[in-house]
Every structure is written in C-alpha cells, then in structure tokens.
Amino acid sequence: MKIKKIILSSLLVIIIAALSYGIYYCSVSFPIVSGYGAKNMCSAVFLAGRSEQQEREQELGFSPMTLGTFTVDYKDSSVTGSVFGFAKRKAIYRTGLGATLINELSENEVRNQKFRLAVKPFINTDTIAWPMGDKINAVIDSSIDMLKLNDAVENIFVEKDTANPIRTRAVVVLHDGNIVAEQYANGFTKDTKLIGWSMTKSITSALTGILVKQGKLQVDAPAPVAEWKDANDPRHQITLKNILQQTTGLDFLEDYTKSSDATKMLFQKAAMGTYTASHEAKDKPGTVFYYSSGNTNLLSRIIRETVGENDYHAFPYEQLFYKLGMYNTIMEPDASGTFVGSSYSYGVARDWARFGLLYLNDGVYNGERLLPDGWVKQTATPSDAAKKGEYGYHFWLNAGAKNDPANRSYPHCPADMYCCDGYEGQFVFIIPSKNLVIVRLGLTQHDNFDADKFVADVVASVK
To answer: Which residues form the Beta-lactamase-related domain (predicted)?
Structure first.
C-alpha cells in the first residue's frame, strides 16, 4: 500500500510538471506563431497583393504555423492570428507603411500615428531606360556564354525534390550593369513584391552610410544611445562600427527555434530598438562577432533620432530608394513607428538588383555619390572578430579565414564576393571582379538551396 502511494504521488508530480511545462511552452510559443502568421499574412495580402490561399499553403504551411488560425479582414485591412483561440495577435496595414504587428500600444494609438511620407514620383518606368526605369534595351554581351548562364538560372527553378521544394521565385543577373538574365516562377512577375527578410539589414547599413556622408554620424564614435551615456557603463564603449559589424557584445540571444530575445523583439515589443538597448553587456565591444537582429533595430532607432521625426519616414525613399529607381520597395515599421531595419522590407527583384548595383558601383548611382567615399570598401572588409572573414558592415562576405583563405562560406565563388542574405534564401550577390550582381528570391524552408553552386555556375558563364 505504501509503495502504491509513492507511485501515485510520483505520477502526480510528473503529471503536474508536464502540465506546467506544457502551459509554459504554450504561453511563450503561441504568441510567436500567431504574431508571425498575422504579420506575414497582412504584408502578403495587402502589400504584395498575394492570395490568402497561396500564403497559407506556402509561407505558413509548415509546423508549428499550421497550428494557427489567421483571419483576414478586408474592411479594415488587418489580419488576426491565434492558436486554438489563444494568444490573439493583430497586424494592420497602412498605405505607405505596410503591415505592423500591434504590440504593447493599442491599435487606436498605432492607427492615429501621423508621419510625413515620401511622395512617389508620378512616372511611367516602362518608358525610362534601365536602371532608373524598366525599359530594357537588348544588349549583346559577348563576354557572357548565354547558354551556360541560362542553364544556371533555369536549373534553380527545377524542383528536384518535390517533397522539399526550394521554390525559387525570381532571379535577376546583371553584368556591366545590364540585365543579362531574368526569370520568374509561375504566379510571380517583375512586379511582384517579395520580402527581403535580413537583406533589410544591408539597406539599414546603406542608410547609415548616407548619414555618415552627411556628417551626422561618425562610425568610430560611441553609438548615440541614451541608455549608454554614462561613461562608467561598459556599453558606452560600443561604437557605431561595432553595431555595423555585429560586435557590440550585448547579451542578446538570436534564436528562432524557441522563445528568445529575437522572437520577443519581433513579435512582442512595440519599440524594438529600445528593447535591444536595454540589454546588458556580455563581451567587450569589438571582440566577439555575434549576428543579432537586435543590433540592427537599435541602429534603426539611431537613424530615426538622427534624421528627426519630420523627415524620418520619408528618408529611405527620398535619400536612397527613389535615387536608385527603387520605386517598388517599402520598409515596414514596428508599433512605435521605427522601421524594423533587421527584417521587414518588400521589393521587386529588379529593385534588389538596383540596390546591388549601387554597391557594385562603389556607392555612386546615376552620376551621384550616395555613399561616402570608401564606404563600400569598408563594408566589404571583414571585422577582425569574424574569424572566417564572413562579415562587414551588415553584409555577408566571402573573404575566408585570415590564415586559411580557402576556408570561406562559398568556397567555389570568388573571394571578393559579398552579399545581402535573408531568411529562406533571399540573396543579392555582388562580385566586383566579375562585374556581376545576382539576385535570387524564393521560399526555401529546408535549407537545401545550393547558393554556392548557383553563383559559381553563373560566374562560370563569364568568359
């Protein structure tokens, strides 16, 4: 009888522990599922003009997103997400701003925000020559083996494993600044806006460069973060360069497989940069490379405070996008109104190619220097803390380890290649030695897109 009581007591403890863990897991996981789904569905439907069905089947068609219910309200341009009726989250669409997930502030407070937005030029880009427009003149490029190039592009639209598709949606290849290859998957066109995910970080870097050129920010100065102004605070030593190179040393966990600083920031915080600024120091600035979306959203807040409220929301468009002919790109803000510089931008494939062309041309575009002299070189110079030579100013590099240059991220590609790199296989590759810009956008959810081979195949087409 005593043994039976012990067994029953032990089972009760196990059941209570399991229930407690289950409740905890649901409490931290469900808001991520409902928030991720609501935000992405809202952007896809109202910003990109995608169908609900396609979004549900593809972007949200994986576990645990399949646990969520996402309801689109076409009357107020919003999407509400929940998991089994719990953890309801709402994302709203606002013209000129895209989708925003409601966090900490009320929906009414967010909807009542007033910002000066950029006025998009009223032009017909089909009548304007590339790259400022979309009029493409046939160019015979004798230095390209078109058969090899077309094979390289077409190969990544073929699904060799239909159970784990790579879903390439758009490819644009530039050589000498001209479009030499362009292809889209069924249902997608040159006018389809696609999410850049972490390629947005590279845009945020470019916006920082513009402010450096204007003399409003200094790369080697302490980062202008009010929370770190005390000279005795170890974070006071963090420079703008440390933020750009992801070497701030902040105690910030970037992990999307569970509840972490990154998921809390993106799906539960109104002011993402402020949330990051609150984190304590873990390592000495400049000594450890740790990729963090928090660093970028802090940088986005710095840009907002530097530009000022009157001009901030128009700034990316007036000072960067429209000067490149990127008329179909948009950045989306968090609930506080600061652009989510780490993750949320949408653009057509040609716009991403234009962005790459800015860097290929050393920061000069349409006869105007937009980035400081030397900025692109610094962008493509590895941080000392990046042991594999893999990171510069919010761009991924292919330089390789200092003592072993063959040990690099893309071993079959040129060492001078660098790129914007986003979740699920978004890329803008820039290869100065071959005068190439390669854009690949897709929805690769199984990490099975061989970017190294694809780029190497494109490079092999250059005679």
So the answer is: 159-450
DSSP, res 129: B
Neighbours of 213 (CB within 10 A): 17
In order of their start, the domains of the chain are 2-102 (no CATH), 146-220+303-460 (3.40.710.10)
C-alpha span between 345 and 268 (Å, rounded): 19
CA distances from 209 to 201, 221, 355, 394 (A): 13, 14, 14, 11
Burial class (CB in 10 A: 0-12, 13-18, 19+), 265: buried
How many other C-beta atoms lie within 10 A of the C-beta of residue 156?
Answer: 23
CA 125 to chain centre: 26
DSSP 128: S
The CA–CA distances, whole Å, from 321 to 205, 285, 317, 324, 330 equal: 13, 32, 5, 5, 9
Tokens of 244: 């750009």
Residues 159-184 have a mean pLDDT of 96
Closest CA to 301 of 275, 279, 323, 319: 275
- Its sign, for the CA torsion 400, 405, 407, 413, is positive
Q: What is the pLDDT of residue 24?
A: 54
Q: What phi-psi label fits residue 362: left (phi over 0), alpha (psi between -120 and 50 degrees) or beta? A: left
Q: Which of 113, 108, 80 is nearest to 95 (CA)?
A: 113
For 14, the enclosing helix (H) or strand (E) is helix 2-42
Q: CB-based burial of residue 187 (10 Å sphere; 0-12 exposed, 13-18 middle, 19+ buried)?
A: exposed
Give residue 14's pLDDT: 67
Banded model confidence at residue 258, pLDDT cuts 50, 70, 90: confident
Angle at 397 between CA 36 and CA 276, to 5 degrees: 40
pLDDT at 21: 52
Judge whether residue 19 has pLDDT over 80: no
Q: How far apart are CA 97 and CA 112, in angstroms?
A: 13
Query: Scanning the structure block, which residue is given the tokens 């007033």?
Result: 114
**Residue 103: closest CA among 309, 294, 345, 338:** 338
Mean of pLDDT values over 117-126: 95
d(CA 191, CA 229): 45
The CA–CA distances, whole Å, from 111 to 87, 95, 97, 360 equal 21, 11, 11, 39
**Where do the H-state alpha helices sit in 328-392?**
349-360, 375-379
pLDDT score of 25 more than 60: no
Question: Per-residue confidence at 29, pLDDT binned at 50, 70, 90?
Answer: confident
